[in-house]
Design brief:
Blueprint: E1 5-9, E2 17-19, H1 61-64, E3 74-78, E4 84-88, H2 90-95, H3 104-111, E5 116-121, E6 131-137, E7 142-151, E8 156-165, E9 168-177, E10 182-191, E11 196-205, E12 210-217, E13 222-231, E14 237-246, E15 251-260, E16 266-275, E17 281-290, E18 298-307, E19 313-322, E20 329-338, H4 341-348, H5 354-370, H6 376-400
Parallel strand pairs: 5-7, 6-8, 7-9, 8-10, 9-11, 10-12, 11-13, 12-14, 13-15, 14-16, 15-17, 16-18, 17-19, 18-20
Antiparallel strand pairs: 1-20, 2-19, 3-6, 4-5
Helix pairs in contact: 4-5, 5-6
Protein name: Fe-S cluster assembly protein SufD
InterPro entries: Fe-S_cluster_assembly_SufBD, SUF_FeS_clus_asmbl_SufBD_core, SUF_FeS_clus_asmbl_SufBD_sf, SUF_FeS_clus_asmbl_SufD
Family: Belongs to the iron-sulfur cluster assembly SufBD family.
Length: about 400
């Protein structure tokens, strides 16, 4: 998309409203898509399905095969006092009523993981340090991962989940926030250039709870992260922030589904990405469903993409489906564009080099969302990584000059 598409819907007595891209399947509600624990309920993707049409499925066949591998990523954890790390069986995870997989890759990961890692944060805990889990691949092997994060009622916690190294990784993560809890989950993807990562993150927001989910995607040949949010009681708040930087040949895809089925809940989604290099491709799809029972919902989603060089492509599709007119507000916005030449000229006219001017413009582009992450160590690491990405442009320009 190269045009700005921004629409806002306010309560206006409508009985139902659907607002989606013209290329989407007509008359198909987001609620109608298959969800199941059984791999057999999902056909092998061909790339013609709506949920796979942007994804290079021909390079993902081994992640769709319903076979256990027995492989694991290296795992390191830092657990503050009171936090427990354990396991449960896949059958017990299913019996708990956890959200079901929403595509074949997630179903395969759940079924073939061999067990579920469980992080338990006790009720009313106030963690002063984050829970840190770092997963690292060493040899590019196929791995299925499965993680459950349970946060007790009225707890306050941050979980940082890091991914690095070489792997073909299918992942499913379930995050359950108890009533009144305040939870931040940060998922950082800094894979090697050859890695593939297909992940599904399901967030269940308890009554009067607030959950912030942050996705930072910088590495990997193909990374596709689906983040789904639902509400277990009224008064819940869900925020999803994302930052991604895509280089030549990379495919970075982020999909979100916020399912408002409970009254008086809030959601806010904001993702920003930068792209550089031939064949760099990003996809952002944001689906929000406000069901008939979800009166008083307030929701907004935003995606912005900055194209830094020729040969890069960004697809951005926000979708809003509303089944009740009794809402506080709902809207979405999406835009993709290039550097602002006037900004660059202004900076260069004041003695700033072209390279430094570009760095300042990109930092400014990300600033509004990075500042909202609220975790100093993540912010500092992210900005350092972005500077490193920009340095590759400067080096390429010097070579061709």
């Amino acid at each position: 998309m190269s045009l700005l598409a921004e629409k806002t819907t306010r309560a206006s007595g409508l009985v139902a409203h659907t607002d989606s891209a013209a290329t989407f399947v007509p008359d198909q509600s987001r609620a109608e898509r298959t969800r199941s624990y059984a791999v057999a309920d999902f056909a092998m993707p061909t790339g013609r399905e709506e949920e796979w049409r942007f994804t290079p499925v021909d390079r993902l066949r081994k992640l769709f095969a319903d076979e256990a591998t027995g492989n694991c990523l290296d795992w390191e954890e830092t657990l503050p006092a009171g936090v427990r790390l354990g396991t449960m069986s896949v059958a017990d995870w299913q019996a708990s009523g956890a959200p079901m997989p929403a595509d074949r890759a997630a179903a395969v990961a759940a079924a073939n993981s061999g067990g579920v890692g469980v992080v338990d944060i006790p009720a009313e805990a106030e963690l002063t340090e984050p829970v840190r889990l770092t997963l690292t691949g060493a040899d590019g092997a196929l791995v299925h991962g499965h993680l459950l994060i349970r946060v007790g009622h009225h707890a306050d916690a941050t979980v940082i989940l890091g991914h690095a190294g070489r792997a073909a990784y299918g992942e499913i993560v379930t995050i359950v926030a108890g009533d009144g809890a305040h939870v931040t989950v940060v998922s950082v993807q800094e894979w090697d250039d050859s890695s593939i990562h297909l992940g599904q993150h399901d967030v269940v927001v308890g009554r009067d709870a607030s959950v912030k989910h942050i996705a930072v995607t910088l590495g990997g040949a193909i990374v596709r992260l689906n983040t789904n949010a639902s509400y277990a009681g009224p008064g819940g708040s869900f925020e999803a922030f994302g930052v991604y930087f895509c280089d030549a040949g990379q495919h970075l895809e982020h999909r979100l589904f916020v399912d408002h089925a409970v009254p008086h809940c809030r959601s806010n989604v904001e993702y920003k990405g930068a792209l550089q290099g031939d064949g760099a491709h990003t996809v952002w799809v944001g689906d929000v469903l406000i069901r008939a029972a979800a009166q008083g919902t307030d929701t907004y989603e935003l995606n912005r993409n900055l194209i830094l060089t020729d040969g890069a492509r960004a697809d951005s599709i926000p979708n809003l489906e509303i089944e009740t007119g009794d809402i506080a507000g709902a809207g979405h916005a999406s835009a993709t564009g290039r550097f602002d030449d006037e900004q660059l000229f202004y900076l260069q006219s004041r003695g700033i080099t072209a390279t430094e001017a570009r760095r300042l413009v990109v930092r400014g582009f990300f600033a509004s969302i990075v500042s909202r992450i609220g975790i100093p160590e993540v912010i500092g690491h992210l900005m350092t990584a972005i500077d490193a990405e920009l340095a590759t442009i400067a080096q390429a320009e010097q070579v061709t000059a």
